[in-house]
Design goal:
18% strand, binds ligand PBG, alpha/beta, two-stranded antiparallel sheet
Length: 321
């Protein structure tokens, strides 16, 4: 008790503060999301995500080289296919936009970990994350397509498959399909706890995946629910997930903390497009110090319990670290 205890002693100089700091950010924590388009020589700035671009494979590989040089050894890929249809066929084409991108990356930078997002919303004409039956996504029919997509992505060289569609049984179905093809070593990073969030807005502009009718609330989680997050995570653990993910991050730090406390799997947090866009917008208008807010936000996500940070700030942070 005061005056014997003076907590300010632990903050008295930057050397002491460095010594007692509990949480540190490292380039090893970072995963950079990247958007891939068909063609060559394409670099389209994404207006809702300042600093982010849609890249064709050639420039994507260049970007990966730069990330690697900064110490980032993992990327997660999202694709904009040439054509969309009702069932998202382009998602599992062996010459699909992501499949070609993975082959190119692995060819030039074999020691970069490639995570492939596994979902249909970028590939379906209606923008939903699966097969539509009676105006809703049919869970079990969608699983069949997810299996094909996963196998195709791993065959192209993906190291980690990240199912993001919130279909029940997806992890089990994908694990079985991968094992049957001899891909026992491919990891599954499950978007176990993914909320139906308005923070995805800028991403949907970036990949043109806004649903043409309705919303995603019959498959993504209700932001009001925390206990249900534990049930979602438990299911995915039982089904064989290697890594769990919570998404979004900043508005869900309580969820990150409770998943960390309840499960021993590595935990990823996806700091989504809206989180990035808000910081960028306020910073551009001189309302906040963007660099400091970036650092503090990502630190808080790690402090809450995330081991892996998926963030559009990956490159910027790595440059600073
Ligand atoms: C695909 C997917 C989405 C995001 C990642 N994977 C969009 C969605 O669910 O609507 C969002 C990422 C972001 O906002 O940065 N289902």
């Amino acid at each position: 008790m005061y005056p014997q205890t003076r907590l300010r002693r632990l903050r008295s100089s930057s050397l002491i503060r460095d010594m007692v700091r509990e949480t540190c950010l490292s380039v090893n924590d970072l995963v950079a999301p990247l958007f891939v388009v068909p063609g060559g020589g394409i670099s389209n700035p994404i207006s809702s995500l300042p600093g982010q671009k849609q890249l064709s494979t050639d420039l994507l590989v260049e970007e990966c080289f730069q990330l690697k040089k900064l110490g980032i050894s993992s990327v997660i890929l999202f694709g904009l296919p040439e054509a969309k249809d009702e069932i998202g066929s382009a998602a599992s084409a062996d010459d699909g936009v992501i499949q070609q991108a993975i082959v190119a990356i692995k060819n030039d930078i074999p020691d970069l970990t490639v995570i492939a997002d596994l979902c249909f919303c970028e590939y379906t004409s209606h923008g939903h994350c699966g097969v539509i039956v009676d105006a809703d996504v049919d869970n079990d029919q969608t699983l069949v397509h997810l299996e094909k997509q996963a196998v195709s992505l791993v065959r192209s060289g993906a190291d980690i498959i990240a199912p993001s569609g919130m279909m029940d049984g997806a992890v089990e179905a994908i694990r079985r399909a991968l094992d049957e093809e001899g891909f026992q070593n491919a990891l599954i990073m499950s978007y176990a706890v993914k909320y139906a969030s308005a923070f995805y807005g800028p991403f949907r502009d970036a990949v043109e995946s806004s649903p043409s009718f309705g919303d995603r609330r019959s498959y993504q989680m209700d932001p009001a629910n925390a206990r249900e997050a534990l049930r979602e995570a438990e299911q995915d653990v039982l089904e064989g997930a290697d890594i769990l993910m919570v998404k979004p991050a900043l508005a869900y730090l309580d969820i990150i903390k409770s998943i960390r406390e309840s499960f021993d799997l590595p935990l990823a947090a996806y700091s989504v497009s809206g989180e990035y866009a808000m910081i960028k917008a306020a910073s551009e208008r001189g309302m906040i110090d963007g660099q400091q807010v970036m650092y503090e936000s990502l630190l808080s996500i790690k402090r809450a319990g995330a081991d892996i940070l998926i963030t559009y700030f990956a490159k910027e942070l790595a440059e600073r670290l």
